[in-house]
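lol ok so funny story. i was supposed to be doing the assay writeup but got distracted and ended up predicting the structure for this chain instead. priorities right. anyway since i did it might as well share w the group, maybe its usefull for someone
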Amino acid sequence: MSRRKAFAAAVGLLVALGAAACGSSTPNSGGDGGSQASNAAYQVGFDSSLSGPYAANGVGQREGFMAYVDYVNKHGGVDGHPVDVTALDDAGDISTGTANETQLIAEHDVSVTVGWLVSNICGAASTIAVEQKVPIICSAIADNLLDPAKPYVYSSRISQTDEALPDLTFAKTLLHEAKPKVAIIVYGSAASTGLQGALENLVERDGWPLVANVNVPLTATDISAQTAQVIAAHPDVIVGSLYDPLAVEFMRSLQAKSLDVPFIDYDGASLQGSLLPLKDPNYYIVSSTTLTGAGSQPGLVLYRTATKAAGVNPVGPFVNVGYAQAMEVVSALKACGYPCSGADMQRALNKLDVNTGGVTSGPLKNTSADHEPLDEVSIYHWDTSAGAVVAAATNLQGGNLRNGGL
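and the output, tada:
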């Protein structure tokens, strides 16, 4: 009995209790994954929060991922092999996410699992990925999985910790005070805790007064108490992490209290979910992946083409994130060759170097010691004079784990 079949038998009950699959891109033409038939499919696992509190982002992430995969499959696949994606829903729940990881590896013999919207779920699932030697690529990830780089565990974006440096670098261009008063507000994911610590360190380094430092529970749907703390502190600038619904509530509360200061939000809010509903020039979003999809670079042209062909809104929440993850996976599969074992996929991911043609800020690039493929960001906001979302800053350097911290 093979290692994976033995693993499948041992965890059969857990898998049976896991979330049901939400769909796949193509029929499985690859059989047991070991077939070397000319048209056999690569097997890829996808997990995200397709229901529950983060569903808007999770569904958008899946749509973006599938838009690129479908485009690749319609144009010959990866060297003639289609990419077959099994997508599961973790509903924002850790135990469901770990059951999904088990199911994807044991039942579908995948080369890689990808998606992983919530850093806490990524952290739990990564334990299984490492044990089974199947790479996992997360869109949100805690620092302890990147520094030092953990075998088989990868990010698909800049880490939230590394957003701290561009946050405050950009803030300096907006403010006139030598020592501006800073408020930090973050919600309680593992990745955002890292961002909070990095912001604290930089604010202290620069001698800026930290007048509020507020945490929002991961399950919060109302943040009026936390917002009141920030407003009472009268900051000159606010930095941190609030995903779309909380960010909209927060900014509208600031407006109601006439607190006219910038809020620089993390790479977890979106154009469709918060920038467009607010149309507030004080609200800024950091992103290592294009938010608007605009531009003439080849990758951006293809982004618009592929999403249109799939009937997907290119500026929908996390469509950009899923699309970039698919670019990462397809490039690694091409380098891996068919069939692609988990160990072979790991070797391919460790040499990843993808020019995305403008889809991301800089190339997607890994080494064996560095599994954070992006280290630059752009910052977007609503430009009242243009009547549109525009990039207020581009290609800002992140505070880099690979370079020994901030």
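The longest strand covers residues 388-397. Confidence is low (pLDDT under 50) at residues 1-35, 400-406.
back to the writeup now i swear
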